[in-house]
Specification:
Length: 116
Protein backbone atom coordinates (compact mmCIF):
# COMPACT_ATOMS: atom_id res chain seq x y z
CA UNK A 1 0.00 0.00 0.00
CA UNK A 2 1.07 3.42 -0.67
CA UNK A 3 1.90 5.87 2.04
CA UNK A 4 -0.96 8.14 1.13
CA UNK A 5 -3.45 5.32 1.83
CA UNK A 6 -2.01 4.90 5.33
CA UNK A 7 -2.21 8.63 5.85
CA UNK A 8 -5.82 8.61 4.65
CA UNK A 9 -6.66 5.71 6.99
CA UNK A 10 -4.98 7.50 9.91
CA UNK A 11 -6.87 10.71 9.12
CA UNK A 12 -10.18 8.83 8.91
CA UNK A 13 -9.47 7.01 12.19
CA UNK A 14 -8.48 10.32 13.80
CA UNK A 15 -11.69 11.98 12.55
CA UNK A 16 -13.77 9.05 13.84
CA UNK A 17 -12.04 9.21 17.26
CA UNK A 18 -12.55 12.97 17.46
CA UNK A 19 -16.21 12.55 16.47
CA UNK A 20 -16.70 9.87 19.14
CA UNK A 21 -15.04 12.04 21.80
CA UNK A 22 -17.17 15.01 20.74
CA UNK A 23 -20.33 12.89 20.92
CA UNK A 24 -19.36 11.56 24.35
CA UNK A 25 -18.70 15.08 25.60
CA UNK A 26 -22.00 16.28 24.15
CA UNK A 27 -23.85 13.40 25.81
CA UNK A 28 -22.13 14.13 29.13
CA UNK A 29 -23.23 17.77 28.91
CA UNK A 30 -26.79 16.69 28.11
CA UNK A 31 -26.83 14.29 31.06
CA UNK A 32 -25.47 17.08 33.27
CA UNK A 33 -28.18 19.45 32.06
CA UNK A 34 -30.88 16.83 32.67
CA UNK A 35 -29.57 16.09 36.16
CA UNK A 36 -29.37 19.81 36.95
CA UNK A 37 -32.95 20.25 35.71
CA UNK A 38 -34.10 17.39 37.97
CA UNK A 39 -32.34 18.94 40.95
CA UNK A 40 -33.87 22.34 40.21
CA UNK A 41 -37.33 20.78 39.85
CA UNK A 42 -36.95 18.99 43.21
CA UNK A 43 -35.75 22.24 44.79
CA UNK A 44 -38.73 24.10 43.35
CA UNK A 45 -41.06 21.53 44.93
CA UNK A 46 -39.34 21.73 48.33
CA UNK A 47 -38.87 25.51 48.41
CA UNK A 48 -42.47 26.51 49.31
CA UNK A 49 -42.58 24.09 52.24
CA UNK A 50 -39.17 25.28 53.36
CA UNK A 51 -40.29 28.93 53.22
CA UNK A 52 -43.43 28.03 55.19
CA UNK A 53 -41.37 26.26 57.85
CA UNK A 54 -38.96 29.19 58.03
CA UNK A 55 -41.91 31.54 58.57
CA UNK A 56 -43.27 29.24 61.28
CA UNK A 57 -39.88 29.21 62.99
CA UNK A 58 -39.71 33.00 62.89
CA UNK A 59 -43.24 33.16 64.28
CA UNK A 60 -42.29 30.81 67.11
CA UNK A 61 -39.21 32.92 67.85
CA UNK A 62 -41.35 36.06 67.97
CA UNK A 63 -43.86 34.36 70.25
CA UNK A 64 -41.06 33.17 72.53
CA UNK A 65 -39.68 36.71 72.69
CA UNK A 66 -43.12 38.03 73.63
CA UNK A 67 -43.42 35.38 76.33
CA UNK A 68 -39.97 36.31 77.68
CA UNK A 69 -41.02 39.96 77.79
CA UNK A 70 -44.24 39.05 79.58
CA UNK A 71 -42.33 36.86 82.03
CA UNK A 72 -39.92 39.73 82.73
CA UNK A 73 -42.86 42.06 83.31
CA UNK A 74 -44.54 39.59 85.66
CA UNK A 75 -41.26 39.04 87.50
CA UNK A 76 -41.02 42.79 88.04
CA UNK A 77 -44.63 42.96 89.25
CA UNK A 78 -44.00 40.04 91.62
CA UNK A 79 -40.90 41.77 92.99
CA UNK A 80 -42.80 44.99 93.56
CA UNK A 81 -45.64 43.15 95.31
CA UNK A 82 -43.18 41.17 97.43
CA UNK A 83 -41.51 44.44 98.48
CA UNK A 84 -44.92 45.94 99.34
CA UNK A 85 -45.87 42.88 101.38
CA UNK A 86 -42.55 42.95 103.23
CA UNK A 87 -43.04 46.62 103.99
CA UNK A 88 -46.61 45.98 105.18
CA UNK A 89 -45.35 43.04 107.28
CA UNK A 90 -42.69 45.24 108.88
CA UNK A 91 -45.24 47.98 109.59
CA UNK A 92 -47.65 45.48 111.12
CA UNK A 93 -44.94 43.87 113.25
CA UNK A 94 -43.84 47.30 114.48
CA UNK A 95 -47.43 48.24 115.36
CA UNK A 96 -47.88 44.97 117.25
CA UNK A 97 -44.65 45.58 119.17
CA UNK A 98 -45.91 49.07 120.01
CA UNK A 99 -49.20 47.55 121.20
CA UNK A 100 -47.32 45.02 123.35
CA UNK A 101 -45.23 47.81 124.89
CA UNK A 102 -48.35 49.81 125.69
CA UNK A 103 -50.32 46.88 127.14
CA UNK A 104 -49.43 46.16 130.75
CA UNK A 105 -51.08 42.74 130.44
CA UNK A 106 -48.95 41.61 127.48
CA UNK A 107 -47.01 38.43 128.47
CA UNK A 108 -43.66 39.78 127.36
CA UNK A 109 -42.87 42.78 125.20
CA UNK A 110 -42.05 42.16 121.54
CA UNK A 111 -43.22 38.52 121.49
CA UNK A 112 -46.58 39.20 119.86
CA UNK A 113 -46.67 38.87 116.06
CA UNK A 114 -49.41 38.80 113.44
CA UNK A 115 -48.76 35.08 112.87
CA UNK A 116 -50.29 34.26 116.24
Amino acid sequence: MDTWIWILIAVVVLVVVIALVALAMKRRREVGREKAAEIRAEAAQVAPDLRRREAEAKGAEAEAEQMRAEADRLQQVAGERRAEVQEDRSTLDERLRDADRMDPDAPSPGKHTADG
